Amino acid sequence: MIKPCSFVVILFAVSLCSGCNSKPEESLERMARSDFLARQGEEALRQNEFDFALMFADSAEKLAPKSANVHFLHARIYSELGQWQKTETAYLQALKLEPGYRGAWNNLGNNAYRQQKYHQAIAFYQRELKTNPAPIPWRGMGRAYEELGKADSARYAFQRAITIDSLYAPAHFSLAQLYDNEGEVEKALYHAQRAWQLEPGNLEYRYLVGSLLVKTKQYERALGILREVIEKWPWYRGAQYNFGQALVHLGRQVEAKKYLDEAERVRAVGAQIEHLENSVRSLPHDPMVHASLAFALRRVGRYNDAMHAYKVAAHLAPNNMEIQNNIANLHLIKGDTTRAINQYHMILQHDSTLVDIWLNLGIVYALSRQIENARRAWLNALKHQPNHPAARAYLAKLPSAR
Q: Is residue 400 classed as helix, strand or coil in its secondary structure?
């Protein structure tokens, strides 16, 4: 509740501001519009719509160039695109405008970590901790120390994170991995189970518990836990391998061979994906490297990761219709026919003569039981290629138009 004397002070302050700026209402309106655009940008970013996210962020910055929030948003977008220098510049600008901006130094640490600059990452996390003694930067610091082979420092950092917040699952998970690597399996299992209890839907945590149960010879329990990981992440080598090992120890050799063979197959595919991920780090501005990674991820069923990689490729090469078509096809694979249709229409606005796109659009319409729309799409395909056999065959299967 505002006291009367305070209210007078506020009015006096407003009158002083009004003397400096003849239109304070306009300034407040610009800030409100900037905040709205920034929220739109955040939503676009969540959906991997990087071009729209940047468009909203740019518009928000024009309205409020001194808003630390807007520069923070720019940094998050650039980070998702792997544009490291732009990311750092935007975070530092946010910190210049608001020196104690929560999370900025931490995210700079993440930015350095992703570039494998671990010493720099640690320095950034330490800067975050000066104003924000939270568990997240401690965990980030621990991961960087672990990459540098400093297990004692890593353990201390993870334990500090847990001391600050005992319910912070990622710190328990990281500490479990560290103990596992050091051969302290019982301690690892305790913290892995703690992480999984806190976030039961996290398949990484579930896998770690299952693999540790194999190491502690609790094979039947391990099978029950690892089975769901295999069902949802069939591309995950560790789950296939540990499931097979549990079966071997239970004497179920024939069943085990299937999973161990699959583990070897996905190991080879995983090595290819890892190579492509390294290529992306080396060539972050090459759209075809991102597209190649997306294709490899799609083949193993990692559809969300594949979509992210395709969207980065599309941002880098917006006029490459092959990449745009792959995005549409992936929407269809994920069961999102609405987005697939919208994506095909976007491609056709760019070039209406692409017969294969008309053909695919017709197929999606037919699957959605939009028969007349499917008919029009396939007729458009024939308009540009009158003897296209697939378009003719599809049209022949449609019921006659009324």
A: coil
Q: What angle do CA 84, 85, 88 make, to 5 degrees?
A: 85
Instruction: Report how far apart the first and last C-alpha atoms of the chain are (Å, whole number).
Output: 70
Nearest-CA neighbor of 356 among 335, 384, 398?
A: 384
Beta carbons of 110 and 123 less than 8 angstroms apart = no
Would residue 158 be called left, alpha or beta, if left means φ above 0 and alpha means ψ between -120 and 50 degrees?
A: alpha
> How far is the C-alpha of 210 from the C-alpha of 206, rounded, in Å?
6
Half-sphere exposure of 386 (CA within 13 A, CB side): 0
**pLDDT digits (tens), the chain, 402 positions:** 333 333 233 222 332 233 334 456 658 888 899 999 999 999 999 999 999 999 999 999 999 999 999 999 999 999 999 999 999 999 999 999 999 999 999 999 999 999 999 999 999 999 999 999 999 999 999 999 999 999 999 999 999 999 999 999 999 999 999 999 999 999 999 999 999 999 999 999 999 999 999 999 999 999 999 999 999 999 999 999 999 999 999 999 999 999 999 999 999 999 999 999 999 999 999 999 999 999 999 999 999 999 999 999 999 999 999 999 999 999 999 999 999 999 999 999 999 999 999 999 999 999 899 999 999 999 999 999 999 999 999 999 888 755
pTM: 0.85
